[in-house]
Structure prediction request, 298 residues.
Amino acid sequence: MQPAPTEPTTVPSRTTSPRARRLVRAFPVLAATAVLAGCGAADTAEQGPPDAELMGHIHGIGVDPADDTVYVGAHYGVFRLDGDTATRIADRWQDTMSFTVVGENHFLASGHPALDEDLPTHLGLIESTDAGETWTPRALQGDADFHALEPADGVLYGFDSQSGEIYASEDWTTFRRVGRFNAFDLAADPTDPTRLMATTPDGIALVDTSNATSSTLDAPALAFLDWPRADTLVGLAPDGRVYLSPDQGRSWTTGGRVPGEPSALEVSDDEWFAATSTGLYRSADDGSTWDLIHALEH
Prediction:
C-alpha cells in the first residue's frame, strides 16, 4: 500500500473572481475540466484505436538529455519524436499525465492505465528509468492523479486533481501538503526551490513552501509556466500568447503566439516547445515564432 500524504499545512483556496471567470471562458478546456487535463479524473486510455499513430491530447513535453530526443506524454501513451514522426513507446496506451523528464532516460508521470492493464484508475506517481519502455509505481497509486509535476533541486512538487492540493516530496515516496489551489501548472524558482509559482484561475500564486504562505503575482493571465533560469520565466496564455519575464515575474514582455489552445510548455536553452489543440510546436527564437513539428489527429 502506498504511503498517504502527511497531515496538511494548507493555504486556503480563493473565491472565484471575475478575472477567474474570464480566464475560464477564454479557455474552453479549462471550463470543461477545471484543470488543464484534457481528460476526466476517472478516464483510462483506450487500447488500440484504429489509427496506431493516434496521440490524442498532449499532457507534457520533455527533452531527454541522453540524446536530445523530444518525448511527449499524451492521452494515448508516451511518444518519441523523430522529425515530424511520432512513435509510441512500448506499444503502451496509458493516459500519461504530467509527463516530466528528470534525467537521462529518466521520466516521471501520472495518469490512468490503458484498458488492458489491471491497475487502479489513478496511477499516482510513476517512474521510468529506460526512456518510457517500462514504468514503476513510486507513490500514491490509486489515490493521486497528478496533473502537474515540477522537480526543483531535490524537491518534487505535484498538483493532485483529486484533492486540489499541491504536494512536495524529497524522496518521491512520502508527500506533504504545501498549498491548496486549483492549479493548472507549476514552476519553481531555479535559485530557490522553496519558491513555487502556480497558475490558477485567479492568477499566478507565489507560494513559499517553507511556511505554506502565498501571495498573488501581478502578471498576465497565464495557463502554463516554465522557469529554466533565474532570468528566464516563460508564460503561455490561454490564447497561445507567449509572455517573458527576466525578473522573476515582476515585469513581462510579449512574444509570439502559438496556434490553438495550449496544453503543455517546455523551455530549454536552445529550443522551446509548446503543445496545443492543433499540434506540437517548436521555437528557435525564444518564442517569437513557432513551427509545427507534429500535427494532431482529431
Remarks:
- The CA atoms of residues 189 and 195 lie 6 Å apart.
- The longest helix spans residues 18-26.
- Residues 18-37+56-295 form a domain with the Methylamine Dehydrogenase; Chain H fold (CATH 2.130.10.10).
